[in-house]
Each structure stands twice: as C-alpha cells, then as structure tokens.
Design goal:
88 residues; 5% strand; extended
Length: 88
C-alpha cells in the first residue's frame, strides 16, 4: 500500500508485547499480490510538480525477494541450494 499510494498510507511496525499475566499466542497471516503484479504509484497519489513519485515501479515478487535478501546474511547466492540435505 505504501508504494502504491506514494506514502499516503504507510506501513505499520509489527510487534507483539504481552503486558498481561496470561500466555498469549500469535499467528501471522500474510497475503499479497501475485509475483508478476506491477507495483507502481496510483495516478491519484502523485503529480509531477508538487508530489512526484517516491518509488520506481517494481514487480511484487521482486520487491518481496529484495526484502528477504536484504534482511539475511549471508546472501542467498552464497548457499549451495543444489546440495541441501533432505529432511530426516
């Protein structure tokens, strides 16, 4: 939403803090567009003079993969994915 709306709707920080005395269980629910969906600013959310686009267009799948790669060390290309041991 943030990229589509040129920051009119910004992403929230996701965190769970249990301040109570009881156990708490959290279950993540994630959804998003198809890998090949083009993420580009909506025409009503920018103008070229006062409010230009803040983000370049990107495919949804490429955006997700960039977030995964940027958040992990070492990078995926350092793994030998052909020789991953089978589950035991």
């Amino acid at each position: 939403m943030q990229r589509w709306t040129n920051d009119q709707f910004v992403s929230t920080i996701h965190r769970v803090i249990n301040l109570g005395h009881n156990e708490r269980y959290s279950i993540g629910l994630f959804f998003g567009p198809n890998y090949f969906t083009n993420i580009d600013c909506l025409p009503t959310c920018f103008d070229n003079v006062k409010n230009p686009k803040k983000y370049k267009p990107i495919l949804a799948g490429d955006f997700i993969m960039s977030r995964i790669v940027d958040g992990h060390t070492p990078k995926f290309d350092e793994f030998d994915l052909e020789n991953v041991p089978a589950e035991q």
